[in-house]
């Protein structure tokens, strides 16, 4: 539990918009990365994760932004894997500025995020790597998760929003069967030990903002 060490997050409201990796209602017995961070820092987590959602799917992140509270200190957006695998909209290109593509939806979301929280500490986290042999590396449109990751990095970089690349720098060896069995049994969702494994990378990232 919180040991009175002073973190930048200590006493702050940390709002997270995300998917099932964040949503505590998805596998409730799994201890999430943000729970480990809350225990260390004493921050208050505002969990706006919804399983199966993303920038273009289900209740989109942009739609969810309309109901987030105004008094958050840190706002982090963590998603994209469902857009890659479940979404019907194509990746698109950086120049897209409408919700007909993933790129376009990224632009619309991050513009709205800055408009709503212009003085707050904003950040993004890319999708985690994933591996299910039955799915392979490509979606039905021949796109890869790495392309979606690069899109998140490119658009956040354009708006000056710090982004943590958990796809390439998360220490998650998604194609190693021993690693998967130990930390991510279904090839997508980390178990409690998986969240424990990578939560410090996210905490270090946030503390550096």
Automatic annotation (TrEMBL):
Residues 17-197 form the SGNH hydrolase-type esterase domain. SUPFAM superfamilies: SGNH hydrolase. One of its GO terms (molecular function) is phosphatidylcholine lysophospholipase activity. Gene3D superfamilies: SGNH hydrolase (3.40.50.1110). The keyword Acyltransferase does not apply. InterPro entries: Ester_Hydrolysis_Enzymes (IPR051532), SGNH_hydro (IPR013830), SGNH_hydro_sf (IPR036514). Keywords: Hydrolase. The keyword Chaperone does not apply. This is SGNH/GDSL hydrolase family protein.
